[in-house]
Amino acid sequence: MNIVGWDDKRSAAADWRAGRVRKANESPPIPAALIIDTMLSFLEGITLTVRIGDIEIGSGKPLLIIAGPCVIESWELIFNTASALVDLSRQLNFPLVFKSSYDKANRTSIETFRGPGLTRGLEMLADLKRRLGVKLLSDVHEEAHCAPAAAVLDVLQIPAFLCRQTDLVVAAARTGAVVNIKKGQFVAPQDIMHSVHKVVASGNRNVFVTERGTTFGYNNLVVDYRSIPMISAQGCPVVFDATHSVQLPGAGGGKSSGQRRYVPTLARAAVAAGCHGLFMEVHPNPDEARSDGPNQVPLAMVKDLIAQCLKVHELVRALPELTLPDEGQCGRLAVNQEFAPVS
User: Fold this and answer.
1) CB contact at 8 A, 100 and 138
2) Cα–chain-centroid distance for residue 71?
3) Under 8 Å between Cβ of 200 and 35
4) In the predicted model, is pLDDT for residue 18 greater than 70?
5) What is the rounded distance in angstroms from the CA atom of residue 96 to the CA atom of residue 156?
6) Distance (Å, rounded) from C-alpha 342 to C-alpha 320?
7) How far is residue 280 from each of residues 144, 182, 193, 232, measured CA to CA in Å?
8) Would you tell me how many other CB atoms lie within 10 Å of the CB of residue 323?
9) What is the CATH number of the domain that holds 258?
């Protein structure tokens, strides 16, 4: 498997020793220690710790919850939902980042609701942060949005459809904000590391990846849980998007549909597979939501869902690590005499 575009571990290590760190031509000068520390973690299978203020994401850290309505429909919606989630985070003792989009630029139809837009949306999110002290995440779809968004948001999210857009990814990285790259439905787990490298090569090591399902024919997605350990092993924390993974893209007649009933199953499985956080869109009444209603979790039920996932997370953390040998390596194992074959 190629890691961030290099042929193998030996050649990459040789590049660092020789001072030939490869980076994009457009990138500014970067401290060598930053690149060496970050890239060595990729090679050694160490998951970096990403910090969102006082919140840490990574191996051995509490399970991060990113939650909120899909899009800002009104001040009342985001304030009431965020207030409930903040109270819940204190009750269940989990780190919270509130998510709601000021502009859904990738809607299926031109007639569907997109949100209040950059200026008004950021004003509402800034007011929310002042009142509740909550960390914030929202999507950025254009390079010009990155700087003003980073002045308010703690995390800039690169939408899945745009995860390979170099200029957008670099612009987000250069703000210094934490960057969440949604893995495109068309991108292999090992290939998303090229997008991660774009962030690191721009001088920002605070980046994580969100798995949100893979295209499975038309109007359907499937989750390959191998992506979680595959991405994590290359040095990047992984969040699982439990609500967009049940989406049925474009299947609602000019909008997407979804299968909300499978959210708990997928969320618990992702935590068992070792994800470092969960992303879920929640709404007081998803049937009346103006975007992605069929996927969103009813606010009244989110406590039970998160509580179950936290229990799975604690169980997984308590288990010893178990790694089976790759093909051709089984002969190195000592044979358990109790089950040794009779010659």
Assistant:
1) yes
2) 18
3) yes
4) no
5) 15
6) 31
7) 27, 13, 23, 20
8) 6
9) 3.20.20.70
Q: Report the alpha-carbon distance of residue 81 to residue 74 in Å, rounded.
A: 11
Instruction: Kindly state whether residue 155 falls inside one of the protein's structural domains.
Output: yes
Contacts of residue 138, Cβ cutoff 8 Å, sequence gap at least 6: 99, 100, 101, 102, 121, 125, 149, 153, 156, 157
Could you give the CA distance from residue 273 to residue 254 in angstroms, rounded to a whole number? 34
Q: In the structure encoding, which two tokens stand for residue 157, read together?
A: 């999210």
Residue written as tokens 């993974």?
245
Query: Measuring CA to CA, which residue among 6, 7, 14, 3 is closest to residue 43?
Result: 3
Name the nearest CA neighbour of 177 among 212, 209, 203, 211: 203
Residue pair 45/3 in contact (Cβ under 8 Å)? The answer is: no
Q: How far, CA to CA in Å, does 201 sit from each of 36, 129, 166, 167? A: 11, 30, 11, 13
Q: 47 with 59: CB under 8 angstroms? A: yes
Q: How many domains does the chain have?
A: 1
Q: Could you list the residue range(s) of the whole structural domain that residue 52 is in?
A: 48-318
Structure token pair of residue 123: 């004003």
Beta bridge partner(s), residue 306: none
Which of 97-101, 143-147, 287-291 shows the lowest per-residue confidence on average (mean pLDDT)?
Answer: 287-291
Provide mean pLDDT across the span 304-327. 94
Lowest mean pLDDT among 14-23, 48-57, 213-222: 14-23
Q: Is residue 131 domain-resident?
A: yes
SS3 79: helix
